[in-house]
Amino acid sequence: MQTIAEKLGAYASSLKYETLPKAVAHQAKRMIVDTLGCALGGYASGPGRIARELAAIVTSSRPATILCSGAQTSPDLAAFANGVAIRYLDFNDGYTGKEAGHPSDSIAALLSSAEVANANGRELITATVIAYEIFCRMCDALNIKPMGFDHVTIGAMASAAGAARLLGLTQTQITEAINLTVAANIALYQTRIGNVSMWKGCAYANASRNAIFAAQLAALGMTGPSPIFEGRGGYFTAVSRKPFGLAPFGGNGRPFKIMQCFIKKFPLGQYSQSVVQAALEARTLVGDVRDIAEVHIRTLETAVSMMAGDPEKWRPPNRETADHSMPYTAAVALMHGAIEQRHFEDPCLHDPELLGLAGRIKCSVSEEANRREPEAMLCDFEVTLANGRRESIRVEYHRGHWRNPMADAEIGEKFHTLARGVLPRARSDALLERLWDLENLADVGTLIELMRI
Hints:
The protein is α+β, with helices and mostly antiparallel strands. The chain has two domains: 4-265 and 422-450, 2-methylcitrate dehydratase PrpD (Orthogonal Bundle), CATH 1.10.4100; 270-395, CATH 3.30.1330.120. Helices cover 48% and strands 8% of the residues. Strands 6-5-7-8 form a four-stranded mixed sheet. The relative contact order is 0.14.
């Protein structure tokens, strides 16, 4: 019987672009467009600068490029720097199963691997589908948050499989890359709760860095602990605390999980997308937000625990805590009618009127939302005004949810908004045109060159 690592290796080595349904290949392009837009938007961030400075120390005889700067470094450090930029704004895609996370974070590992391997657009699309499939199927199988582990523990596996495929590893070598990755990359959930730090946007980037390193080792013949999931000291024992199986992967008539991933309309944690949409709709019914006496948000337990489970969420000390705060982002939407980068910085971050409004927001668990998770992201949003009038809004599928998807034109507009100030419009137009025609691109390096500032 195949081990889980062997199943992952077999799938990663066998999937072919020619067998992908057109809708799946196109969805992969949509995710890549959105992810590179997020990288452009996050380029100038503090964590992005730190990652680039670290990467600049290292040179390589087989280098990869840091997006926008054009500087070259080792493939693993390029993946780290690019992954930090992708994740910084908390604007890249999401998936919710028993576990949840951002499968597009793996694209950082795929870009670096594709560049050094001189891969073409079809190969990048295929590797993207592989990474998404592995990430999402693992998220469907288990919830590791209660055990104290972060979703990037799963993301490392997805990055390793996709990167190893692009680097031309055999099925056996891909399996070994996964063994090495799983053994060495167990991340803690504390990254996303409490007083959230810069590391929130760096954790998956680090997983991708380590995944490329594992793939490089496996390519040279390094073997990893096996069976890494089923063994006496393996993943079942240390992380999941029980055995689990994986549903069949997409292909041969079976659906692909990338089709159930969503693209964010707002630059904040995925569990508040429905909340903010509800707040914006409620704002049109309220009039003057100073008349709001109380707001009550009812949504799923996971959302409340992560985004309203700590006192810091009502007075966030930094942008990382603020974009993972349900009361703060709801208050911003009510007061300003939008969610933008400036709302996570001073003076907005410490605006007493805004924080006063956040203080009047209560968050509680809805059993109906729990029952409908993960198919829906249900939020019931009730505003009580000073005169006693109440207004209620219900959002089941926020814009960008796979049941309420953004159109290609909306994704393109989001891309241009994020690219503004980094690339001239003519360049971002050319880049976007190449991305929408990715299946005909001869060398992924062309994309990286177009992103050079």
